[in-house]
């Protein structure tokens, strides 16, 4: 089921835009275990190839598509490759973000522009590339990865915070535009740190487990359209909450 619509006998095609060794990889593995063919978009090819091979050992399949999501032509070419390999896109997870961790007086305009390009511009380009497939088919799902900085600005991170606020606005606007046409758009606030891969932390309860986050993302894909989630707030279990 994608976007509350029953799947056909054909495989579900999912695109993860912004795949690193943490959350992006966990989401890709979860979707592939559920039988999705998963296309992996990021600038670094070596990690993508290894992950794609791992996904081929699951119920689904993987495809590494090295892509700069800020580049319109690269994004268009990437989605053409995905359709050639897997067919129309049913689900898109926009996980790409970036930004210099600097305050107003330290950040330069190029660093600020880069944060806005990777986040809201990249999200826009990937969504535009995917949405016609969903409108022509049985609907679909688009999920944006947000952060605490999407709902309250963070000191010393004006670029990252501005970009995350913009992504949240993009997601909410798209949800209202596309929801009546059968496309579920959701924004997920990651309200806390994500446990880093292959390294130990002093207090794991202070961090979110990326595999648990991936389970929540899949739940958004499966939701019946009568009760779609617009925004999901995920946070670690700590006493003050």
UniProtKB/TrEMBL annotation:
Q: Name one Pfam family in it.
A: adh_short
Q: Which domain of life is it from?
A: Archaea
Q: Which Gene3D superfamilies match?
A: NAD(P)-binding Rossmann-like Domain
Q: Which InterPro entries match?
A: NAD(P)-bd_dom_sf, SDR_fam
Q: What is this protein called?
A: SDR family NAD(P)-dependent oxidoreductase
Q: Per the UniProt entry, what species is this protein from, by scientific name?
A: Natronoarchaeum mannanilyticum
């Amino acid at each position: 089921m994608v976007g509350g619509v029953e799947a056909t006998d054909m495989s579900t095609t999912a695109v993860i835009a912004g795949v690193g060794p943490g959350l992006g990889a966990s989401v890709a593995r979860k979707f592939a275990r559920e039988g999705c063919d998963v296309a992996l978009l990021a600038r670094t090819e070596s990690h993508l190839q290894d992950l794609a091979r791992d996904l081929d050992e699951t119920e689904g399949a993987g495809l590494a598509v090295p892509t700069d999501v800020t580049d319109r032509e690269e994004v268009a070419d990437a989605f053409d490759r995905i359709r050639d390999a897997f067919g129309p896109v049913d689900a898109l997870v926009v996980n790409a973000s970036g930004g210099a961790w600097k305050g107003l007086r330290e950040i330069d305009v190029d660093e600020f522009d880069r944060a806005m390009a990777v986040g809201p511009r990249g999200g826009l380009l990937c969504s535009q590339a995917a949405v016609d497939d969903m409108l022509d088919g049985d609907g679909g799902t688009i999920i944006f990865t947000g952060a605490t900085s999407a709902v309250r600005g963070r000191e010393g991170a004006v670029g990252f915070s501005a970009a995350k606020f913009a992504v949240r606005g993009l997601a909410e606007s798209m949800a209202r535009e596309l929801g009546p046409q059968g496309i579920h758009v959701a924004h997920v606030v990651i309200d806390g740190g994500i446990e880093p891969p292959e390294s130990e932390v002093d207090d794991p309860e202070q961090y979110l487990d990326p595999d648990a986050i991936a389970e929540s993302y899949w739940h958004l894909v499966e939701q019946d359209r009568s009760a779609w989630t617009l925004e999901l707030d995920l946070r670690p279990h700590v006493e003050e909450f």
